Amino acid sequence: MPPRHHPRPLRRAVAAALVIVAVNLVLWAGHTCWVDVQLTSLEPLVAQIDSLESALAEDDAWLQRNGRIAQEYSEHQQLAERLSLRNRRARAHDALVDAHDARIDRLDRRFYLAPPRRTPLPRRRYWGRGDPR
Hints:
This protein is mainly α. It has one domain (13-113). Helices cover 83% and strands 0% of the residues. It is built from two helices and no strands. The mean pLDDT is 79.
């Protein structure tokens, strides 16, 4: 047995089409009114968003510039640390050399450059624990 159709299918289809058109008209009219209302109320927000976007672009440029500056600063810090380590080593070496030179100067003054003494050096002080000769 074939399926039963509506008694007047064309009338039903036309009514459904009219209902759809009416609903769409109502929705379109409400949407345009709502969009107009929303656009008028959103204009300050749009201006604020534009200003925020421009500020964000400036911040991005600032961050890129300062990112390069920070990278150069870290490279300079690493170089400064290496140089300070090198300078500390050089200063320690200079101090060691100066101490050695001072010791040699003292020994020179004591043994070679000093005028001859009238009294001999005390044995204990000169030889430590007595004269090994």
